[in-house]
Write a structure and sequence with these properties.
The complex is a heterotrimer.
Chain A (H helix, E strand, L loop, with lengths): L2 E7 L2 E7 L5 H8 L18 E4 L2 E4 L12 E3 L12 H8 L9 H14 L5 H7 L11 H15 L1
Parallel strand pairs in A: 1-5
Antiparallel strand pairs in A: 1-2, 3-4, 3-5
Helix pairs in contact in A: 2-5, 3-5
Chain B lengths: L13 H5 L15 E7 L5 E7 L1 H4 L4 E6 H6 L26 E2 L5 E7 L2 H10 L1 E6 L25 E8 L1 H9 L3 E12 L8 E7 L4 E6 L4 H12 L7 E4 L15 H13 L3 E4 L2 H7 L3 E12 L5 E11 L28 E9 L14 H19 L3 H8 L8 E2 L5 E2 L4 H12 L1 H13 L3 E10 L7 H6 L8 E7 L5 E5 L8 H13 L6 E4 L17 H27 L7 E4 L4 E4 L2 E7 H10 L12 E6 L8 E10 L6 E11 L6 H20 L31 E4 L17 H18 L13 H15 L1
Parallel strand pairs in B: 1-12, 10-11, 14-15, 20-21, 27-28
Antiparallel strand pairs in B: 1-5, 2-4, 2-6, 3-5, 7-15, 8-13, 9-10, 9-12, 13-14, 16-17, 18-26, 19-20, 19-25, 22-23, 23-24, 26-27
Chain C lengths: L6 E4 L3 H10 L3 E4 L5 H6 L7 E4 L9 E4 L2 E5 L4 H6 L1 H6 L1 H8 L4 H6 L2 H7 L6 H7 L3 E6 L2 E6 H4 E3 L2 E2 L6 E8 L4 E7 L6 E12 L2 E10 L6 E2 L1 H7 L6 H8 L17 H23 L1
Parallel strand pairs in C: 1-3, 2-3
Antiparallel strand pairs in C: 4-5, 5-10, 6-7, 6-10, 8-9, 11-12, 12-13, 13-14
Classes of the chains: A alpha+beta, B alpha+beta, C alpha+beta.
């Protein structure tokens, strides 16, 4: 039996009928056309599918769409504001924080939470904060640099 | 340095990625698209007795179920191997097996359904009856007399045997040696693990009989060629292969895979577009793996430390089938690198390419070169230990001197340029090597296990030239195409056969062309990854895109410039030899009269209006070049790593990592540094965390990321990157490959550091990855041997 | 990877959840889902129905009094890890929570879910044993309180019956607690996790408990370690000797590709020593 799910995605109210087994990542990608959250590992290790749910970073491949009923979801597509890129997006661009781009949406949204908790997060704290996100291209060096720089800008 | 070349220009591809607008194959949605899923073998080796797909076919939402027989009868040919050394015995590799599975993950049946969830249900509902057969997974063990024989006509499971070097000189070196060191080691099997799992999609136009295939490939043209000539049978003229944004490759997306055949075949069969996206488990058990060598080697030297001979025998596990370039990796990209950065004369290497019941092994970042570097650099450290010499000092003593370039090694390669002494000195200075050694002494006095690892490594990047590749076994050439198409407005489209999947070609190749023509970067667009738009090209691997792909564009830009000068002179009513092309301003002017000028855009427009062209000059401004370099380029590096090993948990902590690389001239320093950093972490992954696991019974132990440990952000505290530049004389840009050097150097740098830390405990060798348990056991063994 | 089909019920109350578990064949509970959903995607778990208790009011939150902490079953690992009350009343519990998975996992995973799942690599079970937790569960036979040592029966098995829902956990206040972990480099699960609790009276160890997870199929209390330490001051040598006995409780240790059973026992000894030292120093 399908279930009705009402949620807010990037500020817009959505009302969808879904199979209970539909994962949130597939709701976003296949039903709502928001393909920014990528599916990299299936088992909750890589963090490529990270979105913000009620402001918290979560892995959308390990959540049922029905569990997001009533929630406020932000995907990478909804992060930039009217004034352009979010400071973390900008920092990733400025600091070469990405190569193939596949892990990038998840990295940026996880960074939102890391800096929410502590805008002055140190290099080591950022590295620890990224324990749920894998990148195979950058060696993390410039991802860490980007996040620290964005934090410094936010707290300046 | 040009206006753009040599500068850290921000990447032009980034805005789409940071906003979640990447165009990966998995994101593709076509009207009426069906979803493909593959039933895979849980057995390493088994006869397929029967496939019962009736329950699956009867499920709601299932469009069709196909077996291996359907594909074979439906015209799908076997997947070919594109590199055959003499006398290679090639096992047949069907797209979907008909009677026998050869490795865990081999494909048995194919489901097509309305959605991926239903496809997954249907795969589970297919009943396959297997008769398990004896299996073997070990690179050397498969050649044992009692090992199961896997393929008719491939005796001892050896697909090929290859050797290179001067065996007599080698023998003599050992006969006259003052000292020798020996080492038997495993270069463990790795899973490349690009973050984006492989995917393929296809759309068949029944009216035009044209097929479009989207695939996660590093080289769409060779894939089109293989699909057309071997596996799918659709003429190249009717086949378009698009490789859009690709989420990392590291070699694993070079090769032609069964799903690239399955999906278009299905699309034509059902008359609807179709898509397959690998689960991570499918990627782990079907993407070609890397490394997997067992090697016995020894190094001969004089008492003064001069290396005189190196004797190497390797068993290279090629897996169940020969993947597209498999035999290339342990032959012409491995044995040829055994001279390393040293003047060793008597180098001799041989390799047995063996077949097992494992996932096929092919190029993975570095591909052959990391295996060589790890072996050579471990031997050098053992030699230093034997002679009581500082390992950096011993390396400097044996390194090829700056003035000896071009340097002919005893194993075929002619190194182009380098300054290994300066490379090592720079690394030592950046690391404060002497300070590290002092700190190590202090740490040892306090009972702490601190180690310093130093390496000097060589890479051969941008395989070339095509004729030599052909003589070594290649079925393809290694040139690259590059087209510079100037539009009437003066805007420029650049078409390259290279493919970017993270390397930033949309930026760097635009930098090259903008500088060549003196036009703003913004007016140059780079197009790649689409056989429907681009001339045949060879793609991206072997760190070739800048040296080969970039050079092809330089050649085309030169042709554009020549025509612009011709037309410009005509418009200025001057003789051609009386005008100059001003590459700073992007215009042609009369020598000595900068005011008498025609801008690039004006000339482009004139080329297309063709109202007033010099006699004999055709309209248009569009040139293509096919650049075939005369040699590889030879990047080099010296990396220094400092570690501490916990004497209780035996965990390795990296304290510092210092990298100095020579990748020749640099187009975009920011991007090159990113390549080195990413490469280093992959190399550290091989040293510390990564291993693809098979149980002795052939079961596959690393089917998910719960088991296969890709490095996380906290594995290193940071990487200090620096470089020196010795331009390559073999290409007009003076560049060398930058993509693989980090990976090649990092594995031995970390391994040498850890073994240096363990030296006081009497440990000489630990197999990779250097997990706490392996170190713990090695220390225990060394201590019980000492007692 | 895609889970197989199931029916979904969202319970508005504990009573409804209990009733659904009793009436719907093959139903499993889900809250955060971070143990269950990965297993369902791998199709290792194929429940025919899920009863979602994630929205039940009043099951989430942390309260503390002088006896200790009361933690609602739906409290996330992130909430436990960040709680000032937890850090002060039972610092080892905050350490165990902070050691679980990663930011995203801790934002969704719940304490009740982790305990009910009883994964051998989970971080909480050893801590629950060592810290003397009591688990409250409600089922068709009403509410009962279960000692942690009774809850964990075997790998992925607890003493809860099919209708029982964990509603909360009570943990006695204990400053002298610590949790230390050797993390699996791929999965982030505990290769070895050791929770230690030490209380002192007049300089002597008056109470001591050590819980170990990750080594055996089910978390265990290392009784001989505690016995060896009780009744005397906890100096470095005694801690070392006591920790050396951890292996006595680890019969049936299991290994994998990363770490063998034997090495896990070695690591358990090291971590027991370190966790005891940290706990003892906090105990004062």
């Amino acid at each position: 039996m399908n279930h009705r799910v009402c949620l807010k995605v990037n500020g817009e109210a959505r009302d969808v009928e879904v199979e209970p087994r539909l994962l949130l990542c597939h709701l976003l990608r296949d039903e709502l056309g928001l393909t920014g959250a990528n599916i990299g590992c299936d088992t909750s290790q890589c963090g490529s599918c990270t979105v913000l749910m009620d402001g918290k970073a979560v892995k959308s491949c390990t959540l049922l769409a029905v569990q997001a009923d009533g929630c406020d979801v932000t995907t990478i597509e909804g992060l930039a504001g009217e004034n352009g890129l979010h400071p973390i997006q900008q920092a990733f661009w400025d600091n070469h924080g990405l190569q193939c781009g596949f892990c990038t949406p998840g990295m940026i949204l996880t960074a939102v939470e890391i800096l929410d908790r502590n805008p002055c997060a140190s290099d080591a704290e950022v590295r620890h904060g990224l324990e749920g996100n894998l990148c195979r291209c950058t060696g993390y060096e410039n991802i860490v640099k980007s996040i620290v720089a964005a934090g410094a800008r936010e707290s300046a | 340095m040009g206006r753009y070349v040599g500068h850290s220009v921000k990447r032009r591809e980034d805005p789409r990625f940071i906003q979640g607008k990447g165009r990966y194959v998995a994101n593709l949605e076509l009207h009426g698209m069906a979803h493909v899923a593959v039933k895979r073998s849980p057995y390493p080796h088994a006869r397929v007795v029967g496939v019962d797909s009736s329950a699956a076919a009867a499920m709601d939402g299932v469009i069709a179920v196909f077996t291996g027989r359907d594909f074979a009868d439906g015209g799908c040919g076997a997947l070919p191997c594109g590199w055959l050394v003499p006398d290679t015995k090639v096992p047949e590799r069907p797209v979907v097996v008909t009677d026998r599975v050869m490795h865990v993950g081999d494909s048995v049946a194919v489901v097509v359904a309305e959605d991926p969830y239903t496809a997954s249900d249907a795969v589970e509902a297919i009943e396959v009856e297997y008769e398990s057969l004896p299996s073997v997974v070990d690179a050397r063990g498969t050649t044992d007399a009692d090992a199961p024989q896997l393929h008719d006509g491939i005796e001892g499971n050896v697909s090929y045997y290859w050797k290179l070097g001067d065996s007599e000189a080698c023998k003599q070196a050992f006969a006259e040696a003052d000292e020798t060191v020996e080492l038997e080691l495993v270069n463990q099997r790795l899973i490349p693990t690009a973050m984006e799992p492989r995917a393929a999609a296809a759309s068949w136009d029944a009216a035009s009989e044209e097929m479009t295939v989207w695939t996660t490939s590093q080289n769409p043209h060779p894939i089109r060629l293989l699909l057309s000539a071997f596996t799918l049978g659709i003429p190249e003229s009717k086949l378009r292969v698009i490789s859009p944004d690709v989420g990392g490759g590291f070699g694993s997306k070079i090769f032609h895979y069964p799903e690239e055949v399955i999906v278009p075949w299905v699309a034509r069969q059902i008359g609807r577009p179709a898509k397959w996206v690998a689960t991570r488990t499918e990627s782990q058990m079907t993407d070609s793996h890397g490394r997997d060598h067992v090697t016995v080697a020894r190094l001969a030297m004089k008492s003064d430390g001069t290396f005189t001979g190196l004797d190497v025998e390797t068993w290279a596990n090629q897996g169940a089938y020969l993947s597209t370039f498999a035999p290339l990796i342990p032959t012409a990209l491995y044995i040829t690198l055994l001279a390393g950065n040293y003047r060793t004369k008597g180098v001799f290497g041989r390799v047995h390419g063996t077949l097992t019941n494992t996932v096929p092994v092919d190029a993975y970042r570095g591909a052959g070169r990391p295996e060589a570097a790890y072996l050579v650099e471990r031997l050098v450290d053992l030699a230093a230990d034997r002679l009581g010499r500082d390992p950096l000092d011993l390396r400097k003593q044996n390194a090829i001197r700056k003035e000896e370039f071009p340097y002919q090694t005893p194993v075929a390669f002619l190194y182009d340029s380098g300054d290994y002494d300066r490379l090592m000195s720079t690394a030592a200075a950046n690391a404060d090597y002497d300070g590290m050694r002092r700190a190590q002494e202090e740490a040892r006095e306090e009972g702490r296990l601190r180690g310093v690892g130093v390496v000097c490594c060589i890479e051969a990047s941008g395989p070339a030239p095509s004729a030599v590749a052909g003589s070594l076994g290649s079925a393809v050439g290694f040139w690259e195409s590059g087209e510079v198409r100037v539009h009437p407005t003066g805007q420029i489209s650049v078409f390259t056969g290279s493919h970017t999947h993270g390397q930033g070609h949309e930026t760097t190749l635009a930098q090259v062309v903008a500088d060549e023509l003196g036009v703003p970067l913004e007016s140059v667009e780079v197009v790649h990854g689409d056989t429907g738009r681009i001339n045949f090209g060879m793609g991206t691997y072997g760190s070739r895109s800048a040296c080969v792909g970039g050079s092809a564009l330089v050649r085309s830009a030169e042709k554009v410039r020549a025509k612009v000068v011709k037309i410009g002179a005509h418009l200025l009513e001057a003789a051609e030899e009386d005008v100059v092309y001003d590459r700073d301003a992007g215009r042609v002017h009369v020598k000595g009269s900068p005011d008498r000028a025609k801008a690039f855009g004006e000339i482009a427009f004139a080329a297309y209006t063709a109202h007033n062209l010099p006699e004999g000059v055709e309209p248009g401004l569009d040139f293509v070049s096919f650049y075939d370099p005369e040699n590889f380029t030879f990047p080099a590096s010296s990396h220094i790593c400092e570690v501490e090993v916990c004497p209780e948990t035996w965990q390795v902590r990296i304290l510092r990592y210092v990298a100095v690389d020579d990748v020749g001239k640099v187009i975009n320093p920011m991007i090159v540094e990113g390549q080195i950093q990413g490469g280093v972490v992959q190399g550290v992954g091989q040293a510390l965390t990564e291993t693809a696991g098979y149980a002795e019974d052939g079961s596959f132990l690393t089917g998910t990321m719960l088991e296969y440990a890709v490095p996380r952000a906290d594995l290193l505290p940071g990487i200090e990157v620096d470089r020196i530049e010795t331009p390559s004389p073999h290409n007009p840009l003076g560049v060398k490959g930058a993509g693989e050097m980090g990976t090649i150097a990092a594995t031995p740098a970390v391994a040498n550091a850890v073994l240096d830390a363990l030296r006081p405990l009497g440990v000489k060798h630990v197999e990779l990855p250097l997990t706490p348990e392996r170190i713990w056991r090695a220390v225990r063994d060394a201590q019980s041997a000492a007692a | 990877m895609y889970p197989s089909r199931f029916d979904y019920h969202r319970a508005a109350s504990i009573e409804e959840a209990v009733q659904l578990l009793g009436s719907v064949e093959g139903a499993k509970l889900v809250s955060g889902g971070h143990s269950l959903i990965p297993a369902m995607k791998l199709r290792v778990a194929q429940p025919t129905a899920l009863v979602d208790i994630g929205r039940i009011e009043g099951l989430s939150g942390i309260s503390s009094d002088e006896d200790g902490l009361a933690i609602g079953a739906l409290t996330t690992h992130a909430e436990v890890a960040a709680s000032a009350a937890v850090k002060s009343a039972c610092p080892g519990l905050a350490e165990a929570a902070a050691a679980i998975g990663d930011i995203q996992v801790r934002n969704r995973g719940t304490i009740g879910g982790s305990l009910a799942h009883n994964d051998p690599g989970a971080d909480y079970p050893g801590a629950m044993l060592a810290f003397g937790a009591e688990i409250t569960a409600v089922g068709s036979n009403g509410e009962r309180t279960i000692a942690a040592s009774d809850l964990f029966v075997d790998m992925f098995t607890t003493c809860l019956d099919e209708t029982e829902v964990i509603t909360g956990v009570r943990i006695p206040a204990a400053r002298g607690t610590a949790y230390l972990k050797h993390r699996h480099p791929a999965s982030s699960y505990a290769v070895v996790g050791v929770a230690a609790r030490v209380a002192t009276e007049g300089g002597d160890v008056s109470e001591c408990a050590v819980g170990v997870n990750g080594v055996t199929g089910c978390a265990v209390l290392a009784g001989p370690v505690s016995e060896s330490l009780c009744g005397r001051p906890a100096n470095q040598d005694r801690i070392r000797t006591a920790a050396g006995r951890v292996g006595e409780s680890l019969d049936g240790a299991v290994g994998d590709l990363y770490a063998s059973a034997e090495f896990r026992v070695h690591l358990a000894e090291v971590h027991a020593r370190r966790a005891l030292a940290a706990a003892a120093s906090r105990a004062g």
